[in-house]
Amino acid sequence: MRVTGTGHASMRIDTAAGSILCDPWVNPAYFASWFPFPDNSQLDWETLGQVDYLYVSHLHRDHFDAKHLRDFVSKDATVLLPEFPTSEMEDEFRALGFTKFIKAPNEQVVELPGGLKIMIQALTSPTDGPIGDSSLWVEYDGVRLLNQNDARPTDLSVFAKLGHVHAHLLQFSGAIWYPMVYELPQAAKTAFGKQKRDRQFDRTWRYIDDLKADHVFPIAGPPCFLDDELWQFNDIFGDEGNIFPDQSVFLSEYAKVGGTNGIVLLPGSVAEVTTEGATTTHPVPVEEFFANKVAHLEEMRERKRPIIEAEKASWRHPEVDVLGEMKRRIEPLLDESIYLAKGVGGPVRFDLVGYDGESVESIVVDFPGKEVRPYADEKVRYRFRTERALIEHLLFIDEVDWVNSLFLSCRFSAARIGQYNEFVYAFFKCLSEERLQYAEGWYDEHERAVDAEDITLGDWVVQRRCPHLKADLSRFGIVEGDQLTCQLHGWRFDLASGRCLTSVGHKIRAHRADAAPTPEAAS
Which is an annotated GO molecular function term of this record (predicted)? Predict the structure, then answer.
């Protein structure tokens, strides 16, 4: 099995029974904030795009690059579709001209012509990607590969049961806006960033240990930030709180925990994977490339500057009545929302900075009141500040997912009172009837579910499944004193009270092992 690195989470897998192109991303994403690093735009995409199969893990723009898919990937390719709850991904592919599809039943092996086997695991929580994420398992002639990309399954046993895996490709770097955009003192940002960076690596080590593959390939990160306004987010300033470590940092950190089987794929690297080992060739020496990272980024910045400026010029739509359009789009969804509206629990304020860079219009999305209205000087727990032009553009293009556009762009600042609230971001990725109804149904089902199984962790008896996304705490749970941390997403709980310390809601059932559960803890 030949694996060719094509940048970020993208790769081309070649076997004698066919080829699969995965997650090809080349064009800037999220309001021209994210670019692939190392740069992959100069690869021979005319040739790379001539494949038998195409797999895109999810609809995040650093995985689903519509322009590149339209221009460079053969429409004769058969699309391998995860079993997602909505038809959005298939609809997007059809709009680009793809007509051949294999809808892979979730966690079931599908045998393709010539003996090539695949299995796709689809994750379908409203917090998984833009309503869904997935992983691809491939087997040919006894060689097995798992492309986990960004996906965060609760465990990898479904893949391990299919036989020993020889190549494990997974995310290790950040792909979020926290904590950089929060209006916090720099010392606090650094501390929170370091915690997140450490958790990212801890989660990666856990997955690697679970699967015990012969070779580990760090992929799906980090992006690079080439706009001067965002340049500080690149991990080139010695900031221990930067959440975007690169592949060379991965190798260094992996070595500290005993890892010796890591392989980096640059764009154009080729790994020949067999049951006996892996041989890799690179277009340039890996160590030398990352030693010159700053120079590569500076050269990319100048080369991509016209692209960024052209993107910025397209965002302003002064003809859009922002308040009126937000009312028209959002109020019907607020009327239908039960779980998300209750979860947000208060008004969310958007401060929109005008074209002059100074004037500000403040608009409130009032979840309890079910309306969008001008800010009325009331106290809000969540506030976002961004350019008016960005909201104009989202409304102009009828964007249904503001997370997969505005928030991942990092072109905003945020402030909040109290804990992280996942329902805020869940709602703003569900600005369509189809997405909202799915999310409401998912939360309804999980609110009603009873998790009766308990486990013992240290001095505590706790429910086995994390209240957040049902991770198995016997594997991901770490107890320190009276606190439990779920390492899958870093959520923390006070065991004495059951209260979630990370977000609103999600109470955990727990009691000391040497004491009987109270009626409240048992319920």
Answer: monooxygenase activity
